[in-house]
Amino acid sequence: MNQTLIPPVRRAFAALAISCALVAGLAPAASATAAPAPAPAPVSAEAGKKKVKLDASLSKKRVKVNEKVTLKGTLQAAENADGTDSLEAIIVQQLQGSVWVNIADTTCRPNSTFSLKLSFSLSAVITLRAYHPETTLYASAYTSSNLTLRVG
């Protein structure tokens, strides 16, 4: 008899996929019997946040493995919320598959600049963006275009 053996890695992925499908199928039923969904957040809280614009660029488009590249940018706000001059988080994210993954962070004040030095240990074409998470004062924002870096 000629029997094809399935490699253990494929069996593990198949089992994981089946488990996820079963859990996903059961999750809506379980949540339907749970407590009622919370009421949506009031719109007025969202409307009170100031909008910001985030711009960033890379010092080089191509670097060698482990070579440092500088990501510089600005966080622009139409006006400082309530006259405060708070430090705002800036997160550098890398596109991995179809998910944005945080790889570095810094802070900067509204209407100011930021700078980060990055290096990568593998040869690859890397897609990056800068992201400002929502705070109590400002809405979230990310760079309008992705930054592409060739490492190799």
Annotation keywords:
152 residues; alpha+beta; 3-stranded antiparallel β-sheet; 39% strand; globular
Alpha plus pi helix count: 2
State which percent range the strand residues make up: 35-45%
Percent helix, as a range, is 10-25%
The main sheet comes to: 6 strands, mixed
Based on Cα principal axes, name the global outline: globular
Counted beta strands: 9
For the terminal residues, how far apart are their CA atoms? 49 Å
Oligomer: single chain
Overall pLDDT level: 79
Taken in chain order, the helices and strands follow as: HHEEEEEEEEE
Uncertain stretches: 26-45
Rg, nearest Å: 22 Å
Give a nutshell description of this structure:
Helices cover 20% and strands 39% of the residues. The chain is an alpha+beta fold.
List the helices and strands and how they pair.
Layout lengths: L7 H26 L9 H5 L4 E7 L3 E2 L5 E9 L10 E9 L2 E10 L3 E7 L5 E9 L8 E2 L4 E5 L1
Parallel strand pairs: 2-9
Antiparallel strand pairs: 1-3, 3-6, 4-5, 4-7, 7-8, 7-9
